[in-house]
From TrEMBL:
GO MF terms, alphabetically ordered: D-ribulose-phosphate 3-epimerase activity
Highest rank taxon of the organism: Bacteria
Cofactor binding description: Binds 1 divalent metal cation per subunit.
Chain residues that bind substrate: S8, H64, G140, F141, G142, G143, D173, G174, G175, G195, S196
Similarity comment: Belongs to the ribulose-phosphate 3-epimerase family.
Protein name: Ribulose-phosphate 3-epimerase
Catalytic residues as annotated in Swiss-Prot or TrEMBL: D33 (proton acceptor), D173 (proton donor)
Origin species: Streptomyces gibsoniae
Pfam families given in the database record: Ribul_P_3_epim
Gene that specifies this protein: rpe
Residues that hold a divalent metal cation according to the record: H31, D33, H64, D173
Record carries keyword Signal: no
EC number from the UniProt entry: 5.1.3.1
Length: 228
């Protein structure tokens, strides 16, 4: 599977979002963190900003919803222009139904797990998803340090994906940088959300290319990729 780099606009200049979206040309997706100050202790942006971003960039939008009542709100982000919508397992009352609704509306359906949420109870749901997001920090704020204790969880998730023969993307989000991206790739991730590591760089587009190169090299030598 191809490595994908998704810059997170949570680390961008919110006063210049259209320009910041253009600054990462060459990225696979633009990661948009939606927070409601209830599910997580932070408030960011919502449907109107997603609609505006969809008009401002050709890069598809990957919306990560850190919000309560995901069953109600997630479909609206597809209608706003998101090409992929991620809801949290901890915030969805009917995750299978929600994933199917997101897909029916024309977007990729993804489910996220907080660091303390195990993957094993959701094994049977994986065929309903296009992507699984393993949080490698506690959701809510950018710039946090990567949690190394999540690497075994990434490995277990990759094993389950391989076990069922799924074409399921495995995304990591939180503390992804030049010093951590290779470990994530070796563990089994193939989609990488990077905020500070991209938007904190002098040349964000170059930072995307550098992270991609590192992740590709690590994937090439990873046992899981060789087995596949």
């Amino acid at each position: 599977m191809a490595v994908q780099i998704n810059p997170s606009i949570l680390s961008a200049d919110f006063a210049r979002l259209a320009e910041e979206a253009q600054a990462v040309r060459g990225a696979d997706w633009l990661h948009v963190d939606v927070m409601d100050n209830h599910f997580v202790p932070n408030l960011t942006l919502g449907v109107p900003i997603v609609e505006a971003l969809a008009r401002a960039t050709d890069t598809p939008l990957d919306c990560h919803l850190m919000i309560e009542d995901a069953d109600r709100w997630a479909p609206q982000y597809v209608e706003a222009g998101a090409g992929s919508v991620t809801f949290h397992a901890e915030a969805a009352a009917a995750p299978v139904r929600l994933a199917r609704e997101i897909r029916a509306k024309g977007a990729r359906a993804s489910m996220a797990l907080k660091p303390a949420t195990p993957i094993e109870p959701y094994e049977d749901l994986l065929p309903e998803l296009d992507m699984l997001l393993i949080m490698t920090v506690e959701p809510g704020f950018g710039g946090q340090a990567f949690l190394d204790i999540m690497l075994p969880k990434i490995r277990r998730t990759r094993e389950l994906i391989s076990k069922h023969g799924l074409e399921l993307w495995l995304q990591v989000d939180g503390g992804v940088s030049a010093s951590t991206v290779e470990r994530c790739a070796e563990a089994g991730a193939d989609v990488f959300v990077a905020g500070s590591a991209v938007y904190g760089a002098a040349d964000p587009a170059a930072a995307v290319r550098a992270l991609r190169s590192q992740a590709e090299a690590a994937t090439a030598r990873a046992s899981w990729a060789c087995d596949d």
